[in-house]
Amino acid sequence: GTLLQSKSRKYYVVEVLGGGGFGITYKVYANEMIGNISQKIFFVIKEYFIKGCFRTENGISVSYASNLKNEFEQSRTDFVLEADRLNKLGKLSPNIVKVNEHFDANSTSYYVMEYLGNTSLLQYVHDNGGCLSEENAIKIIKTVCDAVNHLHSNGILHLDIKPDNIMIFNGKPFLIDFGQAMFFKNGKAKGNCQIGGYTPGFSSAELRNGSVTTFRKDLDIYSVAATLYYMLTGEEPDDAATISKKKIYVGLPDQTCDNICSAITSAMSSNVAERPSDINDFICQLGARG
């Protein structure tokens, strides 16, 4: 396979995992010596490759049209910043994807993440009969909430929580894809306030206008509740524009206990005042028996 080389090791590309607005992700391996035994260890590498880029004649190096120069370099700086932030984020919680290093090669930039298998929560639900038991769904969502709590405590909003962005690896959920995350200091956004995308069913209505200027935990809590709804039903919830309490109650399985129904409906309410203001409040609502 193609070789990608950082200062510390050689990575061999196994396959392309996907592509997004900022780049392409690859499954790779490196040979590590443990004692005198060589071990093949898997990683994920994200390559900076924006719209308008192309490969040069060697098929590996990245180039771009001359009118893209400013955009390419500016966004590349953001890409490297994203790697640095992710590196710090991974230290906050065991259930946030870890970033190992970033490096420049082939006229572009790369960063290296831990490999978390290829089963997203979306796939996991599909593979487990189309929906999960209440017990299993609550166990997963509480671990996700713990990771989100670490983010919020450090002034970070993820803003793209959905079953596609949670990997299930060795039975545990991991939060991935911080491409839309926003960082706040003293309640003020650091950097760009524009949001890159909106996912019908999992994004709250406020994200549709494409910008976030205040540190609002309820935007992530909405997405967490929508993800729990998906696990319990196997169905994506209706878009925020058309969702209603009635639709949520009707959609949830009959045996779903009352506190879970009410926790999801309040977190996904179109009335922001009804949403829990903190992820711990949401967890408490889920666990409150009676």
Question: What's this entry about, in short?
Answer:
With 290 residues, the protein is of the alpha+beta class. It has 7 helices and 13 strands.
Write structural notes for this entry.
The protein is an alpha+beta fold. 31% of the residues lie in helices and 26% in strands. The protein contains seven helices and 13 strands. The strands form four sheets. The protein has a six-stranded antiparallel beta sheet, with helices on one face. The radius of gyration is 20 Å and the shape is globular.
Tally of helical runs: 7
> What percent of residues adopt helix (DSSP H or I)?
25-40%
Q: Tell me about the largest β-sheet.
A: 6 strands, antiparallel
What is the overall silhouette? globular
Q: Strands of the largest sheet, in order across it?
A: 1-2-3-4-8-7
N-to-C span: 58 Å
Number of strands: 13
Low-pLDDT regions:
none
Radius of gyration based on Cα positions: 20 Å
Order of SSEs, N→C? EEEEEEHEEHHEEEEEHHHH
Mean pLDDT: 91
Beta-strand percent range: 25-35%
Structural class: alpha+beta
